[in-house]
Amino acid sequence: MSSSRLLDSRGRDGVAPEFLVSPNMLDVVSPSADRGGMMLGQGTKGEPLTVSVLRPTPTRMVVVGGLYFARQIALRAMATGAWIIIATGRPQAWQPVVRAAGQGPDGRPSQLVQLRRLSPADLPRPTEDMPLLVIHDGGHVPQELFPPRAPWQTTMYVLPYLHPQAASTANNADLVLLQRLPMGQAQLAGQMWRLRPQMFQQLTQLKDDQVIAMGQDMWAHLRLYTTPAEQQILGAVRRGD
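RESULT FIELD:
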């Protein structure tokens, strides 16, 4: 797993630069965060925790859990001004994110969010002013269709559950976000990342709004923060879809 630091509680190390986005979009889909870092939730003492999803280096993320959480990350990345490309076999499930992007000046759906098939395709060139989040929603064993190869590109792999054949993808990630796992999958997580018994046991006891953020020398237990506007788009917080 990469040694890059991605999570911070005070907006210091590992937080992305500030991006520009319309105030209306920011109000609708994202809580505030220092210096452009994405506000992910609160720590055990109620402190805000931000995550640097969009960085000047190619970045891999893995989200293991429900679709609700993955769509929430997409909304917040969109609020920073990022392009969002979603490669998925279930496009209908991502329509709330597409609708949240609104319309362009021509009245057509905004190009900030694009749905793609699960097949290789050219990507727009990301820049500091227009970073790119590629969401790979392709089941429990993802293919490397859109590997992060350029600065300001992040590829996020959405895994509905942990599978032994996903070990390579998970181990190559800069950041792994884990929701509650059944005991068998928690034990698999323990094998993949050499977790202590109390750590994988903790994975089985998370509530619907709790997440473990894991990286090199990092194990952070946090509670998700969901705005009323996000609940209007996505519904009540839940573990699965």
